[in-house]
Design goal:
190 residues, 75% helix
Length: 190
Amino acid sequence: MTAPEPAIDAPDAWDRVDARLRRAVRYVAGAGLLLLAVDGLLTVADVLLRWLVKAPIPGLHDFSTIAIVVSAASCLPATLAGRLNVTIRVFSGSLGPRGRETLETLGALLTVVVFALVVWKMTAHTIEMKVTGRTMSESTHPIWPYWTIVTALLGLALLVQCWVLAFHARCAVLHRAWHDDPDAIEAEGV
């Protein structure tokens, strides 16, 4: 006796990997948002110290500048993995699942190209900062290590987007729809 054929849109191994990837990059985004919260608390403390004892926190401007950029970059992989980028779906309702996934694949391909260019330019920029010995505005700390973190996060976003591209291309070929709830996929135990 053979096992019954799963439904065409039943979650499979690709869906499980996709769900786990989305969950993993949420932790990266969470770390970035935690960094942003620390920056906010330090800013409040700085304002209070300026008001009460006229003594600001030294170097806070440098920290805040880096914290905001790292925090923003840390959210990009989760945004891309969750397919939360801005999308205009004028024709998607009339195209059916395969047409919809084909458009998603084209959009994912364009996003890969854009992120590849950004990572390339950021890598060059980071190398230039290291070679020229650029420092932060208020201290003599070199700035390149922080830009290396940002570039690595953008590289992670590029890898995530490559996965999204492969995933949507597979869905288009197999006439499948994308499952957008990673928790439901994991709960099904597929």
